[in-house]
Amino acid sequence: MAFRLPPLHALVAFEAAARHQSFVKAADELCVTQSAISHRIRQLEDDLGVKLFLRISRNIALTPQGEVYLGAIRKALADIELATRGVTHAVRHTLRISVAPAIGSKWLVARLADFQRQHPEIDLILSASTQLVNIKSGEVDVGVRYGLGHWPGLVAYKLTDEVLVAVCSPDYPARVGGLEKPDDLAKARLLRHPSLPWRPWLDAAGLDWPEPGSGVQFDDAVMMIETAVAGNGVALSPGKLVEPYLAAGSLIMPFPFAPQDRGYHVVLTPESVDRPWVMAFANWLIAAARPAGASPAEA
Asked: What are phi and psi of 75, to 5 degrees?
């Protein structure tokens, strides 16, 4: 018997939009544009010959037919997912992950146990790198990188926006005569990293200073942060890298300025998008990077 079925991607879009009561949040969850969600649902409504949503100003609500259809579709999708897990869990996959060293050691590794609980059929091989060539060559399946999110020939999904924060050990301000206002940094040793220029932070603090060109420079952000913990200067860091240090009290932010910077992204080849075990990790990573209590649209 031939089945007459709507496209699966349209059904998934319908379920997500109904669950969130928002095309925007559904698009964010499914990593597509809002117009793609609207198109898929419009296609589904045309195929069915009924309206599934009422569009009220900027809000949406299910029609009575949509409510009935949602219950049936949600059960069907759950059955498909269960059947798929039953098959894929019987087949082991090896996932090769390349992660920038700092975010890998200070954020990712503490969360990997959750992924392994959810996907015991996927074995992980991690390597530390900031290069893109190992992703493009297929040497690794997926990478985690810091940047603007535009890497030619690769697909990138944003994990989180980032801010730049200046941090030092709790006793460092007193050792240099106090860090009460931004221009007090003239008394401090500014620790440097080639990928993290000071200029955006200095601008946010109202300091018309040139980019620091002397002192210690590091090619490893974790080493730079640990140097600040040891009381040997002020480091500039993406906020996520220093979260555990700030929580533990081994670092402080002497100034409140935190300008927006680039962000972390999960990066993969276009071919990897069609590999379920790769996308399972990418989707888990996107959810893990979402702030606690935030909706997908807020992440």
From this structure: -65, -40
